[in-house]
Amino acid sequence: MQQIVISGAPENVTVLAQSLLTSRVSLAIAVSHPEEALAAAAAVTTNTVVPLSAKAWPQVAVLIITAYPVAENADWLATQLAGMRQVINEAMDKGFTGKILIAAPQDEILTYFAQRFSGLAKKAVVGLGTFGLTRTFENTVATSLAVPRTSVTAYAVGTATDFVLMWSRAYVGATPVLSLLRNADGTQSPLMAEVQTACDAFAKADQAAVRPLLVERVLAAFAGESLLTSLMAVPENSDEPVAAARPLVCDADGVRRLSDLLGSEAEEAALSEVLAAVSEQLTAIEKGDSNEA
Description:
By secondary structure, this protein is of the alpha/beta class. It has helices spanning 10-21, 36-42, 76-93, 107-118, 131-145, 191-204, 211-222, 265-292; strands spanning 2-7, 27-31, 48-51, 62-65, 99-102, 125-127, 152-153, 156-158, 163-165, 171-172, 175-176, 227-233, 244-251, 254-257. A 6-stranded parallel β-sheet has the order 3-2-1-4-5-6, sandwiched between helices. A 3-stranded antiparallel β-sheet has the order 7-10-11, covered by helices on one side. The N and C termini lie far apart (42 Å).
């Protein structure tokens, strides 16, 4: 049974904990202040909810960070970084050595700083990244081509709001999707436009209801059910301040990149522009911290 801690605004913690109580993944869920309704729900499920204690941190496998409450007129990102830093400092001080999973908006920023704050290995700090967009990409292709979703492999990379669709790495079985984009009568298939529209709509939508489903799948990967999808992480081989969602293998060891899963030249160039914007934002935040110090 994986022991996990969920941190964030009470409503976010409760929604995620309720979803994970009925997960097929065996979980012991610790939260700071479990609501009575949450405790009652735990009484009729195989997974459990317990109050978080300082002594529990050395046994915690995964710390899940959701969005923190923001006071009126307060800066959203500054509030998230402060809340995250506080819980990570407490966890590390109490002996936490597990993994961190970011399940909140702007996880390109939060994942980078979670790794910095914790000092954990880069492979141990993961954000949901473009996992939901990747699933949307795959599902839209499968629906349009009338094939099983499990036969489609595709990836969206970058960030949850600024993403690149890797058409060069999209397949139905072993067949490149790009080879299927022309209809029998010679006309161009509308599939690319359909996928772009679906992914744009997903990126603009409220992700609150989706994140618990994605979190459960990542926890299953941490428990041993290996997963290959686009997740957010700090690149192992980069000294620049950046985090990006790329195709990663996620398993009990954390995440690692398959070096051969590169996009086309145009896709990689578009991704480089996304990463440059993320790096610029991270640098600005770091300079702000230095100035305050």
